[in-house]
Amino acid sequence: MNLTRRHLFGTAAAAGALAALPFDRAFAAAAADWALAVADVQGDLAPRPLRLVHGRAPKGLAGTLFRNGPARFTRGDTRAHWFDGDGLVRAFRIDGDGRAGLAARFVDTPKRRADAAAGAIATPGFGTRGLPTARVSGPDDLNAANTSMLAVGGKLWALWEGGSPIAVDPASLATLGPVRLSPETAGVPFLAHPRVEPDGRVWNLGLFGERAIVWRLSATGALESATPVELGRASYLHDFTATDRELVIVLQPWIREAFALPIIDGLRWRPEQGTQVLVLDKDDLSKRRVYDLPPLAFFHLGDAWREADGTIRFDGAFAPDVSHVSGDIDRMVAGEPFSATPPHMALVALRPDGRAEITRTATVGEFPQNDRRRAGSRRSLTWHVTGDERPLPRGLAVTDWSRERSQTYDFGTTQVVEEFLFTPRPGGTAEDDGWLVGTTVNLAARATELHVFDAARLTAGPVCSWRADVPLPAGFHGTFVPA
After folding, report:
1. pLDDT range class, residue 23, cuts 50, 70, 90
2. How far apart are the C-alpha atoms of 428 and 384, rounded to whole Å?
3. Residue 173: is its pLDDT beyond 60?
4. How far apart (Å, rounded) are the C-alpha atoms in residues 29 and 370?
5. DSSP state, 1?
6. Do the beta carbons of residue 270 and residue 255 sit within 8 Å?
7. Exposure class string for 72-110: b at 16+ Cβ within 10 A, else e
8. Percent of the chain clearing pLDDT 90 (strictly above)
9. Cα–Cα distance, 424 to 480 (Å, whole number)
């Protein structure tokens, strides 16, 4: 699929609803197939080789793709929301000689231990009600450690959006315990999508309703500062973005109006309030600007950059409402079809004169990824998953904002596609001079697969693919650590 200029439409001044395509096109008969991607894993996976099933591993590619995602959803006759399953850290290791292997281990959280002791999904969470007997004294009692991974200073952290990072041994994947960046900030939330500058410095947020902590860490993972800021509204935030000089915080009109468990019970969609974008100066967080956009729902954003005239641009996967995460999504773990409006890729421009514009595309997209060497700097490319024919994606795409087009590789109906990450070719400098490394769940083979694409030739398909001897449920996010 090529997306040209005539497919791009709308700005904030004349914005209508995003194109809405239902996710439930005749899924009743096929539900049992894609439900494999949300099936329980009962225990850890010992290290094992992957079998090469296609192509040849490219020279120069060596390292570990660490991925995270929920992998235990049921205990007894109780079931967790998709977002609340126990975090399973997966290590896909590529040795540089054409071989690859897999190991996986659950994060040993207080939540997981409490649920195991109860023999039920006792702990409440984002969308899980839990049991009245659950003991919750703070955010880390809810922490599923199931969303993303951060590699910093030779350490590896499993992240969830509402609690502390949890350190994991990169070699054995054993849980080392919660990360305490300082005695004063123990237990303060740390979002699952930190922004990492090219030199390794880390920025992140910890949310408290209308307020937040801005975390700044060194490239070694040491705390440099933890600064409270006012957000202006208690928006649900899963991600934010940044230029080389600013933090960009998109405040969608999904508002936390009550502190409730499950968390989703306290959230209300208020489209009449529109979307606000808060821009903070990294060097002086008291310097702030606020921009207005139409109501937008989102989970994930691409890296932002500043142009010569002061315009800030960033892209993201935006939907017109939150139906893709509220309502019927709790049926997903049960393997049932449900209706939702998928997000589409769009590009936002924040002008120096205070105007905000959004250029929307017809391309369904999620999990946007960029060349992390260019984080905060001007870029053109975003790689992302795509496809709207079922509740989980089946394709991989690249959107080129400079050429105003998208290109897609369709894995077909028997694959569920997970996030792919760009990793540069050693010595390469071009934005697409590298590989896309990621995983799928092969429904026909009932196995997880690891794939490598040439980032400059996505439509040609994988240059190589390995297959595991087991299926793992679809995960969320990860990081690639070169050898």
Report:
1. very low
2. 21
3. yes
4. 36
5. -
6. yes
7. bbebeebbbbbbbbbbbbbbbbbeeeeebbbbbbbbbbb
8. 86
9. 10
What Rg do the C-alpha atoms of the chain give, in angstroms?
Answer: 21
pLDDT in tens, 322-346: 976 765 666 777 777 666 778 999 9
Q: Which residue has the tokens 């997306």?
A: 3
For the record, the structure tokens of 123 come out as 């702990």
88-to-91, 147, 398 alpha-carbon distances in Å: 10, 9, 28
Per-residue confidence (pLDDT) for residue 314, from 0 to 100: 98
Whether the bond between 262 and the residue before it is cis, its omega within 30 degrees of 0, is yes
| Residue 302: other Cβ atoms inside 10 A | 27
Q: Taking a C-beta distance cutoff of 8 angstroms, is the pair 387, 353 a contact?
A: no
| CB-based contacts of 396, cutoff 8 Å, min separation 6 | 383, 384, 385, 386, 408, 409, 411, 417, 420, 436, 438, 453, 458
Tokens 């010992």 sit on residue: 46
Q: What is the pTM of this model?
A: 0.93
Task: Give me the pLDDT at residue 331, please.
Answer: 72
Beta bridge partners of 438: 420, 451
Give, rounded to a whole angstrom, the gap between the first and last alpha carbons of the chain. 35
- What's the one-letter identity of residue 480? F
Q: According to the model, what pLDDT value does residue 434 have?
A: 97
3-class secondary structure, 114: helix
Hey, what are 188's tokens? 């303060």
Domains of the chain, start order? 5-32+118-124+132-431 (2.120.10)
Give the distance from CA 359 to its chain's centroid.
Answer: 22
Read off the pLDDT of residues 209-249 as tens digits, 9 standing for 90 and up. 999 999 999 999 999 999 999 999 999 999 999 999 999 99
Distance CA 290, CA 361 (A): 24
Nearest of 339, 347, 395, 386 to residue 366 by alpha carbon: 386
For residue 390, how many other CB atoms are within 10 A of its CB?
20
Specify the DSSP element, H or E, that contains 136: none
Please give the single-letter amino acid code of residue 150. L
Q: Which two tokens stand for residue 16?
A: 């209508």
